[in-house]
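Intended use. Records like the one below are meant for learning the mapping from a protein sequence to its folded structure. Do not use them to infer anything beyond what is encoded.
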Amino acid sequence: MMIFFSLFSCNRDEVVIDVSNPIEISPNILFIIADDLGKDAINGFSEGNIKPSTPNIDAIRNSGLSFNNFWTYPTCSPTRASILTGKYGYRTGVKWAGDELDLSETSLQKYIKDQTNGNYATAIVGKWHLSGDNTAVNPEIFGLDYYSGIIRGAPQSYYNWQLTENGVSNVETEYVTKKITDLANDWIHQQDKPWFMWLAYNAPHTPFHVPPNEMHSQGNLPSFLSGMDPTPYYMAAIEAMDYQIGKLLDDMPLDERENTIIIFIGDNGSPNEVAQSPYTFFTAKGSLNQGGINTPMFISGKGVSRTGIDDNLIVSSDLFATISEIAGVSVNQIHDSKSFISLLTETVSIRDYQYSEKDDGINNLWTISNGDYKLIENANGSEQFYNLNNDPYEQNNLLNGNLITNEINAKSDLETELLNIRN
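Structure written out for the chain above:
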């Protein structure tokens, strides 16, 4: 039986929605994570002078929204855990690369499934890195329908790596970016209901390598050796990822593609070896400086009517509530996650503060910003305080001099909010 809803706009034009066909009202969700991709390594941002050729990622950005103040964590595992759970790292214990996510946590995929009565098929393909060194783990235990990919942080080689599926690992020799894309593509084509694909590339994470020639424009690169300039190899890996994203999108039937929303992010800043000005080796990946945690996020496709740059303060945990709402769950805020779905269609304010943290077992720090000022606190008592309007790349620690009244007030305000977040 077919059921129809009639909606009327202000000009009285009738809109008919067939709710017997879920795909008409439930968009497919393609969530793409690039591994170690900072603003300095992608088009659309002023940071960095050397940029890769990425027509497919550029098209995602140009047809939708580019987020200028998106904060992640300084390494991959806590960023992924924050998205998967909607919680800050200190709540889950995942605060650095290689930390393990407890099995008691409710994943985004399970939450969507439970709240929508199984309306969505869910999959994660690619990098997992939430189970330490345990390669026998099957991420499907967290409630997703399908997992296939790289359990640990990075492959030994892009042409010789461990592919894990159903908790079993086997050696793969096909170029990893292509293989991961093909696995995602195969799964998508098998679905007969709305789907949520979490596609986690390990590119452009080290090791530096030479992709197949047709996938990049960096020329005839020799095999990378220590002491060589890694930048062309890094750019080639980004271009190869873009090439495969294009293959994936081109292979979708037009109606399915038009019913898909695409979210593309970098999980943390660029590798230290290839960090570009205004970032440095010490203020890129692994740091709580902007170069380590202020990363690209582009969203376009189904339901996205705004274009251009959005300056809202967004954190990675916000993707939990946002993706849930896209999937039809009525949840504006949950755990440490605030949905920003409204930004896809209108200009509103989402957050007053954004937060991130770092605990690598030696250094324990956390940071907060209100968009104007940024405070970094260390468990050892040291602090850094910056005016991001005048000093966006954190060259001048205001605490090295005397604070004026408005700076004192701003610092006090940030300290108060930190107590609210961390207690």
